[in-house]
Amino acid sequence: MATPPCALPLLFGLMFLLQGDPSQAGDTVAAGRPLSGGESLVSKRGKFRLGFFQPDNSSDHWYLGIWYNQISLHTTVWVANREAPITDPASSQLSISSDGNMVILDHRRSAVWSTNVTGVAPNSTVGVILDSGNLVLADASNTSVVRWQSFDHFSDTWLPGGKLGRSKRTGEVTRLVAWKGSGDPAPSMFSLELDPRGSSQYLLNWNGSEQYWSSGNWTGRAFAAVPEMTSTGASPLSKYTFGYVDGEDESYFVYDVTDESVVTRFRVDVTGQIKFLTWVEAAAEWVLFWSEPKRQCDVHAVCGPSGVCTENALPSCSCPRGFRARRPAEWLQADHTAGCSRNAGLACGGAPDGRQSKSRNEDRFYPMPSVRLPSNAQSAAAASARDCELTCLGNCSCTAYSYTGGCSLWYGDLINLQDTSGGGGAGGSSSSIWIRLAASEFSGTGNKTKKQLVIGLAVAAGSVAAVTATVLAAILILRCRRTRSLRRVEGSLMAFTYRDLQFVTKNFSEKLGGGAFGSVFKGALPDSTLVAVKKLEGVRQGEKQFRAEVSTIGTVQHVNLIKLLGFCSQRTRRLLVYEHMPRGSLDRHLFETSSSHGVLSWETRYQIALGVARGLEYLHDKCRDCIIHCDIKPENILLDEAFVPKVADFGLAKLMGRDFSRVLTTMRGTVGYLAPEWIAGTAITTKADVFSYGMMLFEIVSGRRNVGRPDDGGAVDFFPSTAVGLLLDGDSGGAVDGRLAGSADAAEVERACKVACWCVQDDESLRPSMGMVVQVLEGLVDVNTPPIPRSLKVLADPSKYVQFFSGLPST
């Protein structure tokens, strides 16, 4: 009985499972021994598998590809027939043809793909899958003689050992080309290649011509625009070797791993970003080390014609008002290249003299504020916004205009339009654009509901009972409006009045704590959501600036960052409304000896350290704007019911505006966490947060303040110096909080102490990024023993700082 077509995916999946030991599948295809159906080849040590696969079970497209054989997630690294899928793998095959080439034959025995090598003797070659993930066509008598290899014809993935470069003799380049969609291996518009003009830089291109990112030229150690390659010590790249070769016949870049247990790959993603990924088996997922461009919306035409990109949103692409996805099925596969099309065609009204027609069917303009303007604007002479609008209306090809002191017009599709209403990060200033739409897109309902209410009240006015009912209804409506105004809307910020927050906090009656920027009070929204309301003190911006900056912070969403729910800005009053953290701040659990706080276990401490690192990584590298916290300390780490840490007050550096550096230098209570460059008055980078994190990590390990104040004239004890000394002596366990009674994981303790010491290096270039810190704490990479920072050596001598610390106010 024939197998029904719908059962083929299940059948081949079952065949894969039943193959047993991968080594028994063989690694070679030869003349007379083709590969077909559910059969596959496996490299000698079982690292890679070659066979037919189906990337999207909803389609009938099958491809010949290579994927990892020893990880739990099917991850394809190479595809042969990207542009010519087959529909019946059972009757298709990979074989050696009579001319010695490797070919894919479909069910009609027609060749849909071939290695296309000339000058090969018939029946003299074999195809072999290697443990590097490279498929080679080699001489049957000596497989070290390679006639063709997949490493010269990359798909979207660049594996260790592969050369990505250019032949100087033929001009041929090897390039990575992204998949068109998550389920479609066909080549997309996005590619990575070595500069064909001869320089040593790598370029990300759209459609082979529009460059949107460059690595910068090779400096001898790294690429100029990839500073991560020069990081030392705690860098995750320490397990990799990199080399750029500029020879007589070819130029290429190659990388390799020094630890065979590391599974890694470079990939040009469907999003148009190049990503460096490493497999973490414990999490059963690929972990991102590095990507470029950092911002998704910096990828050229990532959302296609007339699509709108929104940074850090899911999905990142959407269509503006009056438009819809041109190919919805492709959008579901993350392929946005087709962009958006209009719901209704333009009437292209407008009188010949450029004046606006009175016709109801004339096109109109929809304003879209807070955007990064699209590419390819054309200037036009216009004395006002109205003149600019009329100029656009007078040309049937004009689709949008913007007026910011000058008139800019767009013709045809809008490319690279970005919504920055959530706080910017567009790499330029935000503007407004007016998009041309058909008149039918503006047929709203008006105030029909309100009119009906007025008529109803007028009819009832003759009845006293009706009037009474109306008054009562009005009162109820007012109460309901207040209740609705206080309800938290998921994914948005609420603008509260001061009276609202008095109501929420019972007139600020329950104080949770306070700090340099104000006091915090407990409150509850009408839906019983607990909140923490912070009254800011010393914030002097105007209301417009305050709202804009709060809006930026309000878009920051991460499990390890405190969530901002709303704000109040009335006259000189500035308040922030956060989610409530029932466990309070970390310092209470580390330093207080109250019986109400049990001793934090080592496992909990380590997860707190890792969570804070992830939150800071998000602030530094994954937000629209790079946000530097500037005040990392245990008091600013809040814990939820499950002891999940959340970085709090992360927006205050931005909220304080230009005055913040001056205000911070007077915050003497947190001097113990300030990086040397802060005190020296030099420019501040994210590495200032890294230093503060390192100082806090010492405290998490020890369960005590870094600086022990002298009692009865005794010596000041500076713990980081003690911890580094123990680390160098091979006794990092001696640095752990004694209350844990030796129950800490020795490997994690050593890792945490090394990370802390790298973080507090005097030279900020030696400090790891927070992304690197995360990788180290997760155990993905090892770190070398760090040098002792000069500042720790100085502070190890009590005579150097007793007088300084004794002059500090109490914290």
Which features does this protein show?
811 residues, alpha+beta, Agglutinin, subunit A, 5 domains, 8-stranded mixed sheet, 18 helices, 22% helix, disordered N terminus, ATP-binding, nucleotide-binding, receptor, signal, SRK-like_kinase
Q: Could you walk me through the main structural features you see in this protein, from its secondary elements to its overall organization?
A:
An eight-stranded mixed beta sheet has the order 25-24-32-28-33-30-31-29, with helices on one face. With 811 residues, the protein is an alpha+beta fold. Helix 9 (602-622) packs antiparallel against helix 16 (770-777), helix 13 (687-702) runs antiparallel to helix 15 and helix 14 (719-728) packs across helix 15. The protein has five domains: 1-153, Agglutinin, subunit A (Orthogonal Prism), CATH 2.90.10; 175-294, no CATH class; 308-442, no CATH class; 485-580, Phosphorylase Kinase, domain 1; 582-806, Transferase(Phosphotransferase), domain 1 (Orthogonal Bundle). Residues 1-24, 349-360, 424-428, 445-491, 656-669 and 801-811 have low confidence and may be disordered. It is found in: Membrane. Belongs to the protein kinase superfamily. Ser/Thr protein kinase family. ATP binds at residue 535. The chain crosses the membrane at residues 453-478.
Give a count of the beta strands, DSSP E runs of length 2 or more.
43
- Biggest sheet layout: 8 strands, mixed
Strands of the biggest beta sheet: in what spatial order? 25-24-32-28-33-30-31-29
What class, by secondary structure content? alpha+beta
Highest CATH level, the class of the largest domain? Mainly Alpha
In CATH, the topology of the largest domain is named: Transferase(Phosphotransferase), domain 1
Portion in strands? 25-35%
Low-pLDDT regions = 1-24, 349-360, 424-428, 445-491, 656-669, 801-811
How many alpha or pi helices? 18
CATH superfamily of the largest domain: Transferase(Phosphotransferase) domain 1
Average predicted confidence as pLDDT = 80
Q: Supply the CATH architecture of the largest domain.
A: Orthogonal Bundle
Total domain modules: 5
Note the overall shape.
Answer: globular
End-to-end Cα distance, whole Å, is: 82 Å
Write down the Rg: 32 Å
DSSP helix fraction: 10-25%
